[in-house]
Amino acid sequence: MAALNAERKFLNGLKNMKSIILLILHFSCGLQHIIASSVLNINDLASMDRPFFDDISSRNISAVVDETAILRCRVKNKGNRTVSWMRKRDLHILTTNIYTYTGDQRFSVIHPSNSDDWDLKIEYAQARDSGIYECQVNTEPKINLAIILEITAEKELRERSSGKVYFDSKARAKILGSTEIHVKRDSTIALACSVNIHASSVLWYHGSAIVDFDSLRGGISLETEKTDIGTTSRLMLTRASLRDSGNYTCVPNAAMPASVRVHVLTGEQPAAMQTSIASATDVSIVIIIACLIISDILLIRVLNLTQRLTVHRSLS
């Protein structure tokens, strides 16, 4: 009789323990889901508030000598950030928001009230104004949009507009290798494109900005080679980081461009997400392992008790 009472008590305790284990597992999964969802929502909100360029205008602008050239720049979600225009050849800041920081009065910003437009206007444009200009937003990291301006004589521009100087539609660049590249962090990104004509120049873009060989990042090199059938351009970036991910475009002069997408693999989530989700995952794993161990111990005890009861009944 005492043995039967002990068996009932133990089985009741086992049922209670099983309920507790299921409750712990359910709570752990729910907690992990809540933490992961919260982190994702915070990251989504942060990315929504981040400024970006509404890149709807051409990045190659042609204008006639002594006329007005306008370089378009539309910034969404500007907030309290600053929009600046910089001339690339001498790194001169021409404007900041609506203010002009150059003695050349031909430069100014067109910014209609309550608009997203921050266009650079150059009056009485001259051949010396040709070159690369960057529209920049002082985010962290900084984002920029490069515009190539070419000032030509009226006759030359008219010839281009009539199609006499435009490149043949068959002239185009081609990415050598896959157009989707995956590289490990801290390794070297090697990109190459071939052009089926002898292009006078080849530029590389990362997103909407020209790859800057003089940036603080360093480790960027470009090699352009003329071959019998055309031109080959090779871009190399050492010590790859997550910021190097994105779309790269090979833009040859007088030929159609080609793009390749680079994915830098870090083996981890973005910083905020990684810390929170990883810690929640670790806790969940520990809880699950503990529950499995407890279940195994209880199962062994049940088996032992069952054997004892069987022996006891057979002796009785």
UniProtKB/TrEMBL annotation:
The chain crosses the membrane at residues 283-303. GO terms for biological process: synapse organization. Keywords: Membrane, Transmembrane, Transmembrane helix. It comes from the Eukaryota. Residues 51-146, 171-261 form the Ig-like domain. SUPFAM superfamilies: Immunoglobulin. InterPro entries: Ig-like_dom, Ig-like_dom_sf, Ig-like_fold, Ig_sub, Ig_sub2, Ig_V-set, Immunoglobulin_dom, Zig-8. Pfam families: ig, V-set. One of its GO terms (cellular component) is neuron projection membrane. PROSITE patterns: IG_LIKE. This is Zwei Ig domain protein zig-8. It comes from Drosophila albomicans.
